[in-house]
Write a structure and sequence with these properties.
By secondary structure, this protein is mainly α. The chain has two domains: 18-137, Winged helix-like DNA-binding domain superfamily/Winged helix DNA-binding domain (Arc Repressor Mutant, subunit A); 138-191. It is 76% helix and 3% strand. The protein has six helices and two strands, in the order ααααββαα. Helix 2 (54-62) crosses helix 5. It is flat and about 75 Å long.
Length: 191
Amino acid sequence: MLFCKLMNQLSRQKEVTMIERFEKLTSGITQVYKSIQRIKKHRMDSLGLKGSHVMCIYYLSKNPEGLTAADLCSICREDKAGISRILSDLEMNQFITYTTSPDKRKYRAKAVLTARGSDCALKVKDLIMSAVISGGKGISDEERELFYRVLFQVSENLNEICAKLDKETERISNNHESTEKDLLQGLSDSI
């Protein structure tokens, strides 16, 4: 009896610890994300840009041959509409231009930085370096390496969960559609 009570108590303590870890993880990541967004906003305002432009300018500077909107969607983890808006803003402000694509579709054409865009990219890189240096104060190289290894492992684990959930949702949706089709077929057969 005493053993069962101890096991239950240990189980509850483990559950509390897991919940506390979840709270720390989500609140920590949320705070880091919000801080990054605020830094982007303040720093980009000084360049006449939006925070959402940062990653596109950064990746375009890393790829001088240009990137398509689809490439940027994948690299920046943004949706098609968001990237289209960003590229439209950047083109309107003469930070990018497009190479011509064989089928003349802008979405498939590569965006490349203009001279103005390249100048801006240098400033963006300086701002990124400054933020990374400031954010990493008090952290040793070993701690940083461990942090990133753990962060990417957690990310990979959560992505696996998301993939399973996506498959499950698709399976349920397909079953639901099949059930509806069967029901409709049954109704039409009876009429």
